Amino acid sequence: MEHNANKPFTEQTVLITGASRGIGAAIARRFASARLNVVIHYLQSHEAANETARSCMSQGARVLTVTADLRSQEQVERMKEKLLHHGMIPDILVNNAGVSHYGMLADVTEEQWDEMMGINLKGTFLMTRQFMPYMVSQKYGRIINVSSIWGISGASCEVAYSTAKGGINAFTKALAKELAPSGVTVNAVAPGAVDTLMMAGFDAAEKAAIENEIPAGRFGRPDEIASLVYFLALPESGYITGQIISPNGGWLT
């Protein structure tokens, strides 16, 4: 690999996992607006991923969509081969793909627990391990993990999800120290309540109760989370690493 720490920002490639909708799609659109090369990963939401891709292409970005089960080393390797073929190995990796589960811990099945850890934690591990060698070789890169406020504070009835996101936070802090000498930053964005499909399981009264707890008086928007991810990816953000930054409207301070 050639060492090119001075590659212009607009010539860099960003890969966002779970980018077919919600926060992931907003992140893809934000980078596309700056004309970076954008790789949109999805698992099953083919049409939604294509819709996000069309939106990004309309802003002049070069876009590629890829599908993979991030719990599978084989599928992650196959994804990398496709990216190599298209010359789109990421300088910026956004580990956004995740699943949530709401319910008492006593009711969580072993399969649900394994899915939570597999997609949220193992997927982040496999993706990072696959693509960080390229960043290390060029002495430059950005790894940004999308965590959750519950990974910081924990949440009743979301023990499995809180555990997985807490693991992401620890992963972020430790890897940041490991990769800092190589010019690669590792940070996590831990949003509070954001108006996405993940909130679809709550009824209107429950959503209103949550909003009343938030000093800002509202849910966050996906584009607000995307702006923070974009900021952390900038070349001038190179001294920020190992941080868990939580945009949450003052809910947790």
* Number of beta-strand segments: 7
- SS class: alpha/beta
In the CATH scheme, the class would be Alpha Beta
The largest sheet, given as strand count, sense and whether it forms a barrel, is: 7 strands, parallel
Helix content: 40-55%
Count of distinct structural domains: 1
On the 0-100 scale, what is the average pLDDT? 95
CATH architectural label: 3-Layer(aba) Sandwich
CATH superfamily: NAD(P)-binding Rossmann-like Domain
Organism: Paenibacillus naphthalenovorans
Keywords: Oxidoreductase
InterPro entries: KR_dom (IPR057326), NAD(P)-bd_dom_sf (IPR036291), Sc_DH/Rdtase_CS (IPR020904), SDR (IPR050259), SDR_fam (IPR002347)
Domain Ketoreductase: 12-192
Structure description:
One of its GO terms (biological process) is monocarboxylic acid metabolic process. Residues 12-192 form the Ketoreductase domain. One of its GO terms (molecular function) is oxidoreductase activity. The protein has a single domain, classed as NAD(P)-binding Rossmann-like Domain (Rossmann fold). 45% of the residues lie in helices and 13% in strands. The protein has eight helices and seven strands. The protein has a seven-stranded parallel sheet with strand order 3-2-1-4-5-6-7, with helices on both faces. Helix 1 (22-33) runs parallel beside helix 2, helix 1 (22-33) crosses helix 8 (222-233) and helix 3 runs parallel beside helix 4 (110-137). The mean pLDDT is 95.
